[in-house]
């Protein structure tokens, strides 16, 4: 029995050895039992849909004229390290940006400015960029009166500006700023070779790290200097004769 069992193991091992696939591939386990030919989706009306979309845009533009087709959106940076250097349009302006530009939240929604109350401004540069974007839009804005009959309100455009007003067909009211051009490779100058950059970086890192500690020490030293000087203590014992 032992010899037969051993021969069986040898035969099984040889069978696996000659039937193994090459490389470390996935064991094939595909189930092609569905009629996938019946589930293929096709469309042959691409040209017709393109024309329908164009006509719908023209009808919408004529309906809302002289208002623009799109709304003003802020400029934001993409998420993650891969895309944070690229600029794109955001959902809406933050409340802080509207406050700096002198536009209320209620007014912004009526003059074509998108508002996003959840956005937070993390950098001063981004805040100033979007505030300037709002001010530029406000300077070019032609505001029609809400009522045709009656005295125009404060902030409405003059009759001459209303006559010359033209509708913007582009959805992007103000385009994205042009990306910065990359500098071309050049030879290193002699002054740059003499410059010691690493010590400067280390010094800036140290100064940024200890700015709070040094400010605390300076404050304590100023408080100590502002305190009145104490009177000197007298000597122990009686006076000398």
Descriptive report:
It is built from 10 helices and 2 strands. The chain has a two-stranded antiparallel sheet with strand order 1-2. The longest helix is centred in the N-terminal third of the chain and has 19 residues, at 46-64. By secondary structure, the chain is mainly alpha-helical. It is flat.
Give the rounded overall mean pLDDT: 84
Instruction: Count the beta strands.
Output: 2
What shape does the CA trace take?
A: flat
Adjacency order of strands in the biggest sheet: 1-2
How many individual helices? 10
| Proportion in β-strands | under 5%
The assigned structural class equals mainly alpha
Assembly state = single chain
Helix-strand pattern: HHEHEHHHHHHH
Rg (CA only): 38 Å
Q: Helix fraction? A: 40-55%
Distance between the termini: 126 Å
Main β-sheet, in a few words? 2 strands, antiparallel
| Low-confidence residue ranges | none
What characteristics describe this protein?
single chain, 241 residues, mainly alpha, two-stranded antiparallel sheet, 10 helices, 2 strands, 46% helix
Indicate the topology.
Blueprint (H helix, E strand, L loop, with lengths): L1 H18 L26 H19 L10 E3 L2 H4 L3 E3 L5 H7 L3 H6 L13 H17 L18 H5 L26 H5 L2 H13 L1 H16 L15
Antiparallel strand pairs: 1-2
Question: What's a quick, concise take on this entry?
Answer:
It is built from ten helices and two strands. By secondary structure, it is an all-alpha fold.
């Amino acid at each position: 029995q032992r010899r037969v069992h051993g021969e069986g193991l040898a035969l099984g091992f040889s069978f696996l050895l000659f039937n193994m696939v090459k490389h470390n591939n996935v064991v094939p386990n595909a189930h092609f039992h569905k009629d996938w030919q019946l589930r293929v989706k096709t469309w042959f009306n691409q040209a017709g849909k393109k024309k329908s979309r164009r006509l719908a845009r023209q009808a919408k533009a004529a309906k809302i004229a002289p208002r623009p087709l799109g709304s003003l959106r802020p400029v934001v940076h993409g998420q993650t390290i891969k895309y944070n250097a690229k600029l794109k349009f955001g959902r809406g302006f933050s409340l802080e940006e509207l406050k700096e530009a002198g536009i209320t939240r209620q007014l912004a929604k009526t003059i074509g400015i998108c508002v996003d109350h959840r956005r937070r401004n993390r950098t001063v540069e981004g805040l100033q960029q979007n505030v300037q974007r709002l001010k530029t839009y406000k300077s070019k804005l032609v505001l029609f009166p809400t009522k045709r009959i009656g005295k125009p309100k404060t902030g409405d455009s003059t009759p001459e500006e209303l006559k010359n007003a033209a509708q913007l067909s582009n959805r992007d009211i103000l385009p994205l700023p042009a990306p910065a051009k990359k500098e071309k490779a050049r030879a290193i100058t002699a002054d740059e070779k003499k410059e010691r950059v690493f010590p400067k970086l280390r010094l800036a890192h140290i100064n940024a790290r200890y700015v709070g500690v040094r400010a605390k020490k300076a404050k304590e030293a100023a408080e100590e200097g502002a305190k009145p000087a104490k009177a000197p203590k007298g000597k122990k014992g009686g006076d000398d004769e």
